[in-house]
């Protein structure tokens, strides 16, 4: 059993009504896009939509889709101060068995075929000794902290060719897949040995700031026009 967990808390400090405001002319916005993508997946059996926003819950109810399980999330788990760790500890009370694919509406360029591919990669990974999966963006460039490089050593070569730099990986928050058992065991949405599934920059887009929203809208319109 593969259950998608889709958290959509009420409010957004940086982008008001980010989850449901019109996106590229689409009413229902990012929520509609993501629910459509999840429900079109051939490998996801159901989706648990967790929210403390009545508008989101009402939208989901009106779809009358039996694969959607609606969770009216407690208010203390739906505020801007709620930590991801707190929400992770809550998930096993909703999904007690099987495998959990945690995803977000803010990753609109991950579609149903991407989820199917991730799920296949997850189960293949289990056979190879991995215990979970998360999507990442490969970073292979001149990356610094405030004081010095972290991706290369200047004492070796001040400006190496980027293809020779040892890559780092940024968690892009597109998807995390793990077992319900791991959620309870590790209090985390990944295990001790996650498979890092590399995505391209478009798939890795995570809408977090107003500029992200505007950029993603234009990219969505352009991608749709090419179909």
What would a concise description of this structure say?
By secondary structure, this protein is α/β, with parallel strands linked by helices.
Radius of gyration: 19 Å
Which stretches are poorly predicted, pLDDT < 50 over at least 5 residues?
Answer: none
Indicate the proportion of strand residues.
15-25%
Strand order of the largest sheet: 3-2-1-4-6-5-7
Label the structural class.
Answer: alpha/beta
Calculate the mean pLDDT score and round it: 95
Number of strands: 7
Task: Give the proportion of residues in helices.
Answer: 25-40%
The termini sit apart by 33 Å
Largest sheet: 7 strands, mixed
How would you classify the quaternary structure? single chain
| Helix and strand sequence | EHEHEHEHEEHEH
Provide the fold topology:
Blueprint: E1 2-7, H1 29-40, E2 46-51, H2 54-63, E3 68-72, H3 84-90, E4 99-103, H4 112-127, E5 132-139, E6 168-179, H5 180-186, E7 194-199, H6 210-225
Parallel strand pairs: 1-2, 1-4, 2-3, 5-7
Antiparallel strand pairs: 4-6, 5-6
Describe the structure in your own words:
The protein is 30% helix and 21% strand. It is an alpha/beta fold. Strands 3-2-1-4-6-5-7 form a seven-stranded mixed beta sheet. It has helices at residues 29-40, 54-63, 84-90, 112-127, 180-186, 210-225; strands at residues 2-7, 46-51, 68-72, 99-103, 132-139, 168-179, 194-199. It starts with a strand and ends with a helix. The protein is globular, with a radius of gyration of 19 Å. Strand 1 (2-7), helix 1 and strand 2 (46-51) form a beta-alpha-beta unit.
